[in-house]
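Check the record.
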Amino acid sequence: MKVLSKILNEVNDVANNVDENRMDNIVELISKEKRIFVYGEGRSEFVGRCFAMRLMHLGYAVYVVGETSTPAINENDIIVAISGSGETSMVLNIAGKARDKDTLVIGVSSKENSSLIKISSSFLIVPGATKSDKSVKSIQLLSSLFDQSFHIVLDAICLKLRYKDKLDNEEAIKNHANLE
């Protein structure tokens, strides 16, 4: 069995079903005048951290919720809340608290009718299989298809931000870690 080809085909199928207009809307919402907070649980957190790192490389003020150096959030900020199912209780809790502070909430989920999307100011649907989803078929375990797909989608948003901000690779390298 050629699993790599099958995985790539699955990710490609998901990517072809992501609304690029919604991606463009998120690109317009993100600006260097705003601080960006990222939150997810489990593997969604890991991919969220990758997104936060790339935003930092592009020169954005970005924080991962839960880190000791993360400041208070306010109405001038953005939070990107990530949950494959859109029902992860801690993600809903954090997104709800941010919304209560009039923060712009961008929800990322595989389910358009999920609780996360309902409380979000803007959203992006990445329709990959999750651990509790029986409607999307995947050869992969649990939420792997969603995780892989939204990682690529968030990297694509960063690429769009790079073009919007007219940055090149040399500019991004200036913000890359240099103590390693």
Q: What stands out?
A: The CA atoms of residues 40 and 82 lie 5 Å apart.
